[in-house]
């Protein structure tokens, strides 16, 4: 480091610089320059974690060991030249130069080359401990206790400030779970986290109030989840007298606690769904049964009301008042029918009397005399109309011979024959001339 750079860090620089307040950008830029000058490009050994490949082609990751971690970036041009397929857990040796990302004030290693350095130490430790504990039978299915289908009191060993516990509670509330949840606070990452969680498991078992325990946290890298792979915590989970669900990380994350626990949930939210699933099914069945009971009760109540109404109506019919009323109704009906029958009989009698009177009138002597008189008068009028006097009155003349017989044809008249011409007002003697 140069004298000028040393002066900047120990405060003994130029008097004018010491009196002037630096902006954050200026200060960060000086730190960047100092680091770049003090630390030359070099090789760094570590394990890759939090690997993120961006659409731009840049690759971001962390290099970690048991004591520290270093942010690193592999820009697109350098990433395209690498022969190593980067992945989380891969132990590598990376060549690069330290730099400062000024927007965040974060130093990082700008990587130019990566070579593989074998399997990561943490992954090797994980596999070795997993094999040893499996050989002991710690993960055997026969050791696992059944998960109570409807626990009344659940303890959740986790960080009380993490997002996992909020998601866990939110799922239980959304599904209407009616049990009691107790959050058992403990560190879930870093030094001493495994010991705290193991102690909390033993304390929860000693209280004797829990039907089920859940141990877990949200997702993260292998290093973030390492506390759940430490042997003391794994053994505490396996030996706990209360059934334990392990809910660590995301669906793709596996820890040794997952194998030691009585059940594994992919996430804390999945554990909440597992705990409340039987309760939710029972609640749905209860709701269906209640609806069915309401239907049956409503049907039976309707039928009972109908029977009651029928009985009331029948009782009213059997009561003395109803019988008297029915008697009045029948009496009125009979009276109406009697009146109608009497009126109809009277009308028939009148019709028959009228017909008999008409027949009697037609057969009485007076009527017959009147009819005969009328007939005689008509005949007399016809006779008068046909009499000779009537004919003579109409201007006709009757010719008679000497004997007084009517001459009906001319041939019966001889020349010079004496005839008599009878008029209406007298007779005239005439003689035929030819």
From TrEMBL:
Keyword field contains Cytoplasm: yes
Subcellular location: Cytoplasm
Predominant place of localization: cytoplasm
EC number annotated for this UniProt entry: 3.1.11.6
Pfam families, per database record: Exonuc_VII_L, tRNA_anti_2
Catalytic activity field: Exonucleolytic cleavage in either 5'- to 3'- or 3'- to 5'-direction to yield nucleoside 5'-phosphates
Gene Ontology MF: a single term: exodeoxyribonuclease VII activity
Keyword Nuclease: yes
GO biological process: DNA catabolic process
Domain OB-fold nucleic acid binding: 22-114
UniProt-listed InterPro entries: Exonuc_VII_L, Exonuc_VII_lsu_C, OB-fold_nuc-bd_dom
Record keywords, A-Z: Cytoplasm, Exonuclease, Hydrolase, Nuclease
Residue intervals of the Exonuclease VII large subunit C-terminal domain: 138-430
Any GO CC annotation of this UniProt entry: exodeoxyribonuclease VII complex
Quaternary organization: Heterooligomer composed of large and small subunits.
Family as reported in the entry's similarity comment: Belongs to the XseA family.
NCBIfam families found in the cross-reference section: xseA
Its job: Bidirectionally degrades single-stranded DNA into large acid-insoluble oligonucleotides, which are then degraded further into small acid-soluble oligonucleotides.
Name under which the protein is recorded: Exodeoxyribonuclease 7 large subunit
Species for this entry: Termitidicoccus mucosus
